[in-house]
């Protein structure tokens, strides 16, 4: 289901080189229950500011597993994985054709009779 929420806080997490900020979002379910969750995705600088309204997707049976309805939250992980897959596929393709079309080397006769 889709709902409207707002960012109540930014949680600072430590990354290898810098700090990343994960938004804490509060929203109400259709049944009227108030739910607060922390986004799985942290960015630096923060994507959202405290008080900003956001759209969320949630499962009515488990509203705590909600996600923010934006492109990066929904498709960012898949896009990164797909991009890495394409890079490795191109490298493997180039290696395959380099070996397949390589000219055979002349063999040296080291044993002279």
């Amino acid at each position: 289901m889709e709902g409207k929420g707002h960012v109540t806080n930014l949680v600072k997490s430590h990354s290898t080189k810098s700090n990343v900020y994960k938004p804490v979002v509060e929203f109400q379910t259709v049944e009227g229950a108030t739910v607060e969750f922390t986004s799985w995705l942290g960015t630096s600088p923060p994507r959202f500011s405290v008080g900003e309204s956001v759209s969320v997707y949630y499962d009515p049976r488990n509203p705590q597993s909600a996600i923010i309805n934006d492109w990066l939250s929904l498709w960012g992980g898949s896009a990164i994985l797909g991009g890495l897959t394409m890079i490795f596929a191109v490298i493997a393709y180039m290696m395959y054709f380099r070996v397949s079309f390589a000219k055979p080397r002349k063999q040296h006769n080291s044993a002279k009779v």
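The two ends are 84 Å apart (CA to CA). The chain has a mean pLDDT of 89.
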